[in-house]
């Protein structure tokens, strides 16, 4: 049986971009890939590469887990767990640090971007976290890793480290393949459609949170940046704003962009946005209701306990093999 692995940081609330680019894909895949075991985790260790308030972080960890289930992840088909509750993630992360080179870490885009913005106070973990990310994947011998365009570099590093370790110590890790969603892989900002939709954006109108009030969600769609051309067509370079909205529309309705463009031939941006606002609201409202019912329900802890148990079982076995390959620990008589 193949395995699929993916994680998300609990830093802030999830956005519509997270839903379309990742969670919706997982929900579809859990039903399509019947011969694949899913490991979806809350990447709380990755969150502390930057300072976090502990109370806020703990609340966010549970909140993200609840939203994943509310969005449709089936605990009977998916192992949902918290990264820090499986110590083997950090253990293998150090092994991967000892397999990677400093030059590789310094070439990682997110680290270089941070260095440009901040010269002092950068935590060591920000430099080395891609090795922990590699460990997250390799620990479960993942065959499939869903990624967006901005994560190709991380997956390539993971593949390189797996191949290097296998060469140095013998065949140990599966070299993972990336899975690239066909539609909605990268939803853009509603105020600057040249940038990715991000919950860290200073302008709250730039993103839609899954827990935003429904009226707020509709207003954000209706006020989204478009252009003066007024023609509804898909052209990322010349009409980035409307193209982004068309991508959202197509992703939530499972229609082709071509058919949507034809449907709105001769219609105004206002009509299109009003319809899209209703579609987004109709998608998110039932998610919010399921979330509110689940967030304080003990069943959420039961789901996370079950996921932890299965993940821990595999992780322990893998680390025994890794330590033996590297030569760590004692030889049992």
CATH class of the largest domain: Alpha Beta
| Helix count from the secondary structure assignment | 13
Unreliable sequence segments: none
Query: How many β-strand stretches?
Result: 5
CATH architecture of the largest domain: 3-Layer(aba) Sandwich
Element order: H for helix, E for strand: EHEHHEHHHHEHEHHHHH
Q: How many angstroms separate the termini?
A: 34 Å
Major beta sheet, strand line-up: 1-2-3
Q: What's the CATH H-level superfamily name of the largest domain?
A: HUPs
* Rg, Å, rounded: 21 Å
The computed structural class is mainly alpha
Helix content: 40-55%
Would you give the CATH topology of the largest domain?
Answer: Rossmann fold
Total tally of structural domains: 2
What would the average pLDDT be, to the nearest integer?
Answer: 92
Shape: globular
Biggest sheet details: 3 strands, parallel
Estimate what percentage of residues fall within beta strands.
5-15%
Could you characterize what this model shows?
The protein has two domains: 2-185 and 297-326, HUPs (Rossmann fold); 204-292, Tyrosyl-Transfer RNA Synthetase (Orthogonal Bundle). Helix content is 54%, strand content 8%. The protein is built from 13 helices and five strands.
